[in-house]
């Protein structure tokens, strides 16, 4: 897939994108970013002119600051809401491709980048796998500060849950039971 990256200098375009993102936050809106006493860039990745992913970089002397910025949060990577309308298998593939492209482009420009992700950010594998086979080129350090929640939706017994999960998970469950 072919992607283009740009610094988004139009506040309305950026704010419209933030408004469509499941990772939207007041801390990513241009008015809030402009009120901070630091420089910032809003980055956008597009495909065929359509914005698919954005990122907020807070800068000091042209260098990205370590996240989170004091008294703010969720200034990180945001995906367009249209991505979440895709089937899971297509969404996962596209998200990984977009993360890889964004991170490759940003790390060509900066020695480091730092994000404070929104709690709805589903897939950190792109960050975990970045430079995996070349760790000397730099890898991300993840500091997770939230817990994943599994919606059980009325499941009343463990056997009921086992019947609803993927077969490979049932196999793992049987193996773990057998191993004690």
Can you put this structure into words, describing what you see?
The protein is of the alpha+beta class and 180 residues long. It has six helices and five strands, in the order βααββββαααα. Strands 1, 2, 3, 4 and 5 form a five-stranded antiparallel β-sheet that branches. A hairpin with a 2-residue loop joins strand 3 and strand 4.
Short description:
This protein is an alpha+beta fold and 180 residues long. Helices cover 34% and strands 16% of the residues.
Write the layout of secondary structure elements.
Elements: E1 4-7, H1 11-20, H2 30-35, E2 39-47, E3 50-60, E4 63-64, E5 77-79, H3 88-109, H4 125-129, H5 158-164, H6 167-178
Antiparallel strand pairs: 1-2, 2-3, 3-4, 3-5
